[in-house]
Amino acid sequence: MLILGIETSCDETAAAILEGSDAGEARILAERIASQIDIHARFGGVVPEIASREHLAALPPMVNAVMDEAAVDWEKLDMIAVTAGPGLMGALLVGISYARAAGLVNDIPVMPVHHMQAHLFAPGLGQRLPDFPFITLLVSGGHTMLIRVDDVGRFHLLGQTLDDAAGECFDKSARLLGLPYPGGPAIAQLAQGGNPRRFPLPRPMLNRDDLNFSFSGLKTAVMHTVRKIPDIERKPEDMSDLAASIEAAIADVLVAKSVRACEQQDVPRLVMAGGVAANTCLREQFETKAEVLGLDVFMPDLKYCTDNAAMIAYSAFLQNQAGDTIPDEWDAKPRWPLSK
Asked: Is 39 exposed, middle or buried (0-12, 13-18, 19+ CB in 10 A)?
């Protein structure tokens, strides 16, 4: 089975060709990603209209490139998979319109894919997915959720952020430190060699038994800490220590809540996915904690943490394997709950 995956939900334009077998094995034959980070950085965040225009320019030649690399033409494709939501409406419509037009002209079925479901299964690209059920920490710029995954399309939301997501906290904290967008990579780079325990930042909701998150208080604490350090005294080591302290505070909460979810659900398999899953400090803490507690931890390859089309094609492949059918009517869904 050959699937063309298309992703245009936010600020990455991506296309990929996946080959899947009846035995459930899948491999990526070709993939491309074009990031818009440099374009949006001067605005401090993603500008929806600019994102849509960039997708419109980048997507057609990108699809041609992956098809050429994979030596696949339209007649050989069995399916087109496209992100249908959640995401920015204009950005989603660029990918959906292209997929539908290509599907109509070439008589290829088009499968709408839930962007967050694709992230859940991204660790399966290049390695075996854990047995069901497993617990997933889905953590990105706009989402921080703990989900019990019982099967393809069968999810149970265990907890989520009540305000800022972890990625938003990174972005807003970075702005307070005078760092560029996106904040996560900028803080991670500055934190190298810093003392993560120098600044006593809070760990919001860490000691509550529920599995919800809150990061707005941490952002506020960072603001007050920055204000207490006069401009003339902001030495490089001060900023490095503060960045490391921010990173450690976020990681401590995410790891503790994820482990708690595994314990409460009696599920020893933990998956981490989403853009923030690329954070080295977080990955190391998960691996250390898992080894101590005997948990099996699965994390995607770094290139599959951020938005990509390989995970979209892979999710569609899993849906097809599970017997899912394409809805008669579907459209872009900027807001699309994951749990059913």
From this structure: middle
**Peptide linkage before 86 cis (omega within 30 of 0):** yes
Answer yes or no: is 338 within a domain: no
Bridge partners (DSSP) of residue 7 are 14
> Average per-residue pLDDT in the chain?
94
> Which residues have a Cβ under 8 Å from the Cβ of 194 and sit 6 or more positions away?
237, 240, 241, 242, 243, 244, 245
- Amino acid at site 319: Q
Residue 262 in any domain: the answer is yes
Extract the runs of DSSP E, i.e. beta strands, from 240-281.
269-273
| pLDDT tens digit sequence for 175-197 | 999 999 899 999 999 999 999 99
Domains contained in the chain, number: 2
> How far, in Å, CA of 70 to CA of 61, rounded?
14
Same structural domain, 198 and 284: yes
| Rounded distance between C-alpha atoms, residue 301 and residue 202, angstroms | 30
Report the distance separating Cα 148 and Cα 4, nearest Å. Answer: 28
Task: Confirm whether 82 is domain-assigned.
Answer: yes
Same domain, 113 and 143: no
Helix (H) or strand (E) holding 28, with range, is: strand 26-35
Which residue numbers in the chain have pLDDT < 70? 231-233, 339-340
The burial of 52, by beta-carbon neighbours within 10 Å (0-12 exposed, 13-18 middle, 19 or more buried), is given as: middle
d(Cα 254, Cα 111) in Å, to the nearest integer?
A: 33
Residue-level pLDDT at 228? 87
Instruction: Please state, as a whole number, how many other Cβ atoms lie within 10 Å of the Cβ of residue 38.
Output: 9
The reported pLDDT for the residue numbered 304 is 95
Provide the token pair at 217.
């208080």
78: its two tokens: 């069995």
- Written as six digits, the tokens of 296 are 């099996």
* pLDDT at residue 233 in the model: 62
The confidence score (pLDDT) of residue 245 equals 97
